[in-house]
């Protein structure tokens, strides 16, 4: 049977790939005006309809914005972040009318071992930042956040007061993400995580491991552990 997947050799795909690569490499930074449709039509020798499709898809992905009668602009990366549905736990708690508390277990410098260095794109033995924070809702622990940060992306990370701003909020301000990779599993916590969350070591937890990247440079690697009885993933679907 023929595939419904669009060919990467289709004319619009070439236009889209050119623009997307330029955004990722920083050729156009947030707020910059992108090439006009007329310029792209001439450059790729395609129809205006073909160019329009490429731009519409980039707009749907949150990578560009269009202003009628003015042109197309590189989107601010914080908007890209929102399309990736990375919500801060603080915002979720406050939206319920409850109080968020953060208890910082530690925030320090460490030397990167081989596996971590590869994940953060740094040299083995180089300095990375490491924080361990417990987030609570009305005094009940909801998340144990074990996070490593690439210092080149957030050099002042260890100076931040994480009782007034969460790591997620801060990092989205100083190093807006371009890409996110994550895994989700149901597993038991470590002994330290169980103690910090006030649960048993055999209690089921929802564990999210998330890695974020800005223009090819890894920003952070976070392990987020949630007690299974206090956390759920929900959503909606409409055919």
Structural class: alpha+beta
CA-to-CA gap between the ends? Answer: 24 Å
Mean of all residue-level pLDDT scores: 86
> Would you identify the CATH H-level superfamily of the largest domain?
Chorismate lyase-like
Sheet with most strands: 6 strands, antiparallel
The run of helices and strands is HHHEEHHEHEEHEHEE
Major sheet: order of its strands?
Answer: 3-4-5-8-7-6
Annotation field: number of helices: 8
CATH topology of the largest domain: Chorismate lyase
Low-confidence stretches: 1-7, 79-84
Kindly state the percentage of residues in helix: 25-40%
What is the CATH C-level name of the largest domain? Alpha Beta
Describe the structure.
This protein is of the alpha+beta class. The protein has eight helices and eight strands, in the order H-H-H-E-E-H-H-E-H-E-E-H-E-H-E-E. Helix 1 crosses helix 3 and helix 2 crosses helix 3 (48-60). The longest helix is centred in the first third of the chain and has 15 residues, at 11-25. 27% of the residues are buried.
């Amino acid at each position: 049977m023929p595939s419904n997947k669009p060919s990467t050799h289709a004319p619009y795909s070439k236009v889209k790939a050119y623009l997307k690569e330029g955004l990722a490499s920083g050729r156009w930074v947030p707020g910059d005006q992108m090439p006009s449709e007329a310029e792209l039509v001439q450059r790729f020798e395609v129809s205006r309809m073909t160019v329009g499709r490429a731009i519409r898809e980039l707009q749907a992905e949150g990578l560009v914005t269009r202003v009628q009668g003015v042109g197309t602009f590189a989107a601010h990366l914080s908007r890209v972040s929102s399309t990736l549905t990375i919500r801060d736990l603080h915002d979720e708690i406050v939206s319920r009318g409850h109080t968020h508390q953060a208890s910082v277990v530690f925030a320090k410098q460490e030397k990167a071992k081989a596996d971590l260095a590869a994940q953060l794109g740094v040299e083995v033995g180089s300095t990375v930042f490491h924080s361990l924070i417990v987030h609570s809702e009305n005094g009940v622990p909801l998340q144990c956040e074990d996070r490593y940060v690439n210092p080149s992306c957030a050099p002042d990370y260890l100076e931040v007061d994480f009782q007034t701003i969460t790591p997620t909020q801060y990092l989205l301000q100083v190093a807006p993400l371009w890409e996110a990779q994550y895994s989700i599993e149901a597993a038991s916590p470590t002994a330290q995580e169980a103690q910090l969350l006030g649960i048993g070591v055999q209690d089921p937890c929802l564990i999210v491991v998330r890695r974020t990247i800005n223009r090819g440079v890894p920003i952070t690697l976070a392990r987020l552990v949630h007690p299974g009885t206090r956390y759920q993933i929900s959503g909606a679907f409409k055919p």
